[in-house]
# Entry
Amino acid sequence: YYRPTSKMFARNARTAAASGARLLNTSAKTASNNSALVGAAAAAVVGGCVMATEASPAQNASSLMSMLSSINDKVSNIEKAIGAAEEPVESFMFTSESVNEGHPDKLADQVSDTIVDACFAQDADSHVACETCTGTKFVMIFGEITTNAVFDYEAKVRQTVKEIGFDAPEKGLDYKTFKFINNIHAQSVEINASVSGRGQKPEEVGAGDQGHMFGYASNETPELMPLTHSLATGLGFQLTTVRKNGVLPLLRPDGKTQVTIEYEKKGGFIKPKRIHTVVISTQHDPAYTQAKLKEDLMEYVIKPIVPADLIDSNTIFHINPVSFLSFFFFPFLFFLHLICICIC
# Structure
């Protein structure tokens, strides 16, 4: 086993200082002359101390303790500088959540995406700022669109809602009967002129909008995302899968998942230690009892996704902690981008 010289020095110096302190504590209590401090002095010299032998035992003891303390502080600073210090182990919690395709904000995402796709399918020069808000029994699209594409906006939206799985009034939204509101209008002439880029060099074209994002890659998972995120989205996707493939047909489209993991941090590195809490809230048919729902979700959703080695006897599972039956998850919800615009 190879140990770098710098780390060996730091370790030896600290050991010498510690040995001197232990010997000194013993000698100072039992000795009445300088000879009793020989062992402590010898250890201290190894650590870099020089002591006066002409002083009294009490003076020598006090002086040596002071020097040993100084050595210990200096060694600590050296260890930190050369990376040899023993880093303390810290623990912290980190939580990620995810929403299913039937959750209002995810439904709003998909509706807006459908309009964007339909515009660009026919006109590559389209300028689309389509927002969506939705709630029980209605979907509204609004915003500014400049395009030569021609299509049935309502038909596109209803098809998207159908594919998500809202196909009956008791689910809170029925693609056949919900109220559709279209408040789309054209982009203003002034803005369009500055961002269209027609006859302009790229550096002369104005920005239609601005956005700032940041993030990082993590080696916790193959997809390079934090494990909490991967598990939360994986549970949500599994909920959708077992609902659509018939394994759990009493589930309904709306739902949310959340995972909290206890992490261990040491020396600037973090690793998942254990899963602290798993939360699943899902819309379902009233015929589902709470006991049966929990049993099925544990077997067909949680077990296939959550690593068993990170679950222990203290892991908490909240399955529909608040009753979540046939109603739509929120009475209304504006798409996140719209909220940002209103705030700014």
